Amino acid sequence: MSTTAAPLAPQLDPYALAAELSGKHLIGGRLVASASGKTFDVVNPAKGEVMGRAGYGEAADVDAAVAAAVEAGVTWKALPARERGRLVAECGRLLTAHTEELARLVALETGKALRTESRVEAGVLADAFTFFGGLGGELKGETVPFNPKMLTLTVREPLGVVGAIIPWNVPMMLMALKIAPALVAGNTVVVKSAEEAPFAVLRACQIMAQVLPAGVLNILSGFGPECGAPLVAHPRVAKVTFTGSVETGRIVSRTAADKLIPVTLELGGKSPMIVMGDADLAAAVAGAVTGMRFTRQGQSCTAASRIFVHDSLHDAFVTALKAKVDAMVMGDPLDERTDIGTIVSPQQFDRVQGYIAEGKRTPGAAAHECSALPTDAALAKGLYVRPVIFTGMTNDSRLAREEIFGPVTCVIRFTEYEDVIAQANDSDFGLAATIWTRDLKTALDATQRLQAGLVQVNQNLVVQPNLSYGGVKSSGLGKEATLEAMLEHFTHKKTIMLNMA
Ligand code: ADP
């Protein structure tokens, strides 16, 4: 068990927590500094001030974390599967008790509003551990009717040390969907957090280290090339699960290919939302607000960033969508009144502004800027971007082809069903898609033909444990969040044959 003596008490002051966690990784059940002693600044994007310093993980720290994971793996994989599940479910219970502090900490480091986003994410974090914790008994094998004189069976075995590399947009949830199934399946884990959001995930792991044996779960903070790359390349890392950009996904995949180890990649999207002429307009508009994740400043892989609206509804849809987004409040992420917080970092801010400027220069396109920047002087340096709805943009424009990861969507007019299906599929990505219609035949046809890992009709729900998540085309490789994903991506099937002749 972990070395933590007294149970951790929830700490609702995120500044105090960031200070407590500053400069630290979690290796072998203990909070430790980087081997080099180096740290890097973590900035609160709503105020532009340093909120803490994270441990600057490098190859030496990766070595230490992987060594701890290798050592812990011996006894962890020997535990009965349901006992591992029980401990993982216990993590879910502990995380539930810490939901509010984790929500506040992630809001401070990412700029995501507490009420609309961060609290929801903290809830899913706990839920993922509860869900996967119940699945230990499902790590079943099979018997194979190969030969009556040969008892042939399969067993599921863990892969070993899993390297989990996560992004900053929903860091706790995406971490949970990777590590909960990996742990239940009997693997041990080294997480590499995103440089923009290292604290909430570290805190979550510290909380879990109270029940997990030391070394079963380790987490490092650091930058991609210095910390992520050596983790992927480490000879004792047997599997990498990654969520991030297509570009980095390719780098990770190349290294994994050299080592001949499996990878799971979740790489983003440019998700189409199709609003047919017979759709319920009010429901579709509400669905666009949720789907575009305006409350997360559009920083979502599944953001409905291409909204195809039938000519007959187009103008009414744009007016209603703008009115709804106008009514959303931009402000301090920690303020309960805030709907929309900030972009995560200055680099992302500049990128998003670049796309908006390009959109405004595009001939025939119009930018409808929504809501209003906060007026509070304390937020003057905050990375706030007003949501923008572009109209008159075509599906072949850069804004409709590239993942912006900001509060920017394109509403594209269409008239013919066949044409809109073709346009929706004319994308490098294939993560999620929705269709809004009252016609059952159209709905069913679209669900068959839209090229995406998740297709929804008349709704735009977010990812949840037990819903298979992952894309086709450049959106990634492999699925997450389900029992099948746990079996397929975190175990291998061993065949055992007993000669009875
Ligand atoms: P984004 O640009 O959206 O932040 P990235 O793909 O750069 O997406 O980052 C996702 C995660 O991948 C982060 O944790 C980041 O540090 C990590 N990362 C970046 N470069 C590499 C790399 N070369 N090898 C491994 N991990 C990396």
UniProtKB/TrEMBL annotation:
Occurrences of domain Aldehyde dehydrogenase (ranges): 33-496
GO molecular function: oxidoreductase activity, acting on the aldehyde or oxo group of donors, NAD or NADP as acceptor
Keyword Oxidoreductase: yes
SUPFAM superfamilies: ALDH-like
Family designation: Belongs to the aldehyde dehydrogenase family.
Domain of life from the UniProt record: Bacteria
InterPro entries: Ald_DH/histidinol_DH, Ald_DH_C, Ald_DH_CS_CYS, Ald_DH_CS_GLU, Ald_DH_N, Aldehyde_DH_dom
Protein's recorded name: Aldehyde dehydrogenase
PANTHER family: ALDEHYDE DEHYDROGENASE-RELATED
Active site as annotated: E266
Swiss-Prot/TrEMBL keywords: Oxidoreductase
PROSITE patterns: ALDEHYDE_DEHYDR_CYS (PS00070), ALDEHYDE_DEHYDR_GLU (PS00687)
